[in-house]
Amino acid sequence: MTETATSAELSVCRSNIARPGAIAFTENSNAQRSLTMRQPFAALITAATLSIQPAQAEETNVQPNHPYVGMWVTDDKRVRHELLPNGRYVEARGHRERAYEGRYKVKGTHIEYWDDTGFAADGDFVDANTLHHGGMILRRK
Fold first, then answer.
1. 56: which DSSP letter?
2. pLDDT score, position 62
């Protein structure tokens, strides 16, 4: 049997949500007792709360643990790697500004790349302004 609950009854039910699966008894205005299962109500409230939470970018406050963030370019400017502070990179080739994208990790002076298609590559920073990668020499811009 479904009955309309008063605001006092709802507040009693809400205050008992903390123990999922427990049973709460509430009285309606007619002094009849109704049995309420709190677990489905708690799940509904949880789902509603999660659905209204703002999505937060995971990569917004990441700080690099290396000095190589920035743009790296071949001498002919045909290949450009932008190492982002969040561990992602964007590689441009010729007129294709976003030819490849993926993640990277720097350990010491060695860099490893994993593009979003699954291809992996690596390179070495030979000094603060020179990167050797895949037979190419890229310089800090």
1. -
2. 62
